[in-house]
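Batch job 17 of 40 flagged for manual review because the log was empty.
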Amino acid sequence: MLRLVRRPAFPGEFNHELIWPLAFLGLAGAGWAWFETGWQLPGCLFMRWTGWPCLGCGGTRCARHLASGDLAQAFLFHPLFSLVVLGFALWTIWSAVWWVRRDPLRLRLAADEAGWTACRRGFLGLLFLNWLWQCHYLRA
């Protein structure tokens, strides 16, 4: 079973909630600056050689649409990447709120072996479904 567990912070424990907002904002700022320069990547070699998208195909276009605020187009290009980026954005907000409140409670993922196995299978299933979507959408 996989569950989120609240636990008190240990005395002297490093406040990792400071890292998430700063890292996310730094990466988002760097990505925005990169897109503003108009610099283009050469394209996916795997797709050029095989005609099939790789697991990352559409990620750059997804990020460009996310940076411009077009969430629907971003989701169409790469559903999993857009959900991960939005999840990190929500985690950043969550972390900032907990840091401002100075609440010493932490969330951690607790699971037994069956829970981790289910989590791994679910992740691989999501990767496969995302790839099927990319095959349908990017090759159309």
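Reviewer: the log was empty due to a logging misconfiguration, but the result itself is present. The chain is about 65% helix and 10% strand. Unflagging and moving on to job 18.
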